[in-house]
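Methods, example record. To illustrate the input and output format used throughout this study, we show the complete record for LacI family transcriptional regulator. The sequence lines were provided to the predictor; the line carrying structure tokens was produced by it.
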Amino acid sequence: MPNPSRPATLKSMATALGVHVSTVSRVLNGDPAGVERAASPEVVERIRALAKELDYRPNTQASNLKLRKSQEICVLMPRITDLVMATIYDGIDSTAEQAGYLTFVSNTDDQQPRQMQRAEHALRRSVAGLIVGDSHVGDTQPLLDLLTRKHIPYVLVSRQIAGHVAACSNDELGGWLAAQHLYQLGCRDVAILAGERHASTGADRTRGFTRYYREQGITLRQEWTVNGPFDSLTGHQQGEYLLGLTPRPQAFFAVNDFLAIGLMGAARDKGLMPGKDIAVVGFNDIPLAHELIVPLTSVRLPLTEMGQHAVELLLKRIKGEPVASIILTPQLQVRASSSVLPS
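The corresponding predicted structure is encoded as:
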């Protein structure tokens, strides 16, 4: 019998039962076809009884090293504290769990060197694949080039880059819808809180917004488009600057709800009321948007669904199946922050 002071192994149980180690492996790994070929019902029963008696637990780490893969998925996020990304991750994690996979998040702070470090750590764990939520627009893609070279399955989520599979939204359409709404409201002097320059989300939403106005024969002031992090502090600071201009913009499009909320805070400090003195439109439609004192008009994205699709695409890539990006359609939710033409 195996030494009770040591954890049971496939080899020790095979020796005790007088069968080949591969027979024990097939029985305990639950491969029905393999079990029928490997042993009689009596031998199968003996193996399972001994495993139960010894409280046998598979050595998943050893299995991962042997198979060069695990049942884990690494999710690279720019900031875990971001409610938008957290909502997307909720969809990722629940869908992965249903498929028998575990997920873990690595926070990259939206910095490419840190992104590479976190990804390399995940690869040392022989993860089954990666979901990348912090891709950067640009000519060089060191992480994606590495994953492609090593044949590691991956998909992008939320952000998108041409030539790479992604689960994301039609952000350019979302910006176009926001512009159409403000234009039809009568707003011509509009500022844009455009987010990070390297993020496809902000760039695409800004592109769609400015394109709509250009199609109406209006070129928006370039100096009224400001870039920065996707957070409320930045929105407040950018709002103070833009609202302090003479003349000031009539309306504001923020490519993220937190930027819009920060801007509305700056407007409050200056005695201005969104929906009366200025018009404000955000993006993502987080739950807080319609709970504000002045509910925020926002472009709604199906964030949980986006995370679900990211996992579905990744699992297909893991299986070697052909895949194509999934682009979800945004919808504009009009509320009091932009319900009337500003006075």
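Annotations derived from this record:
The first helix runs from residue 10 to 17.
The chain has 13 helices and twelve strands.
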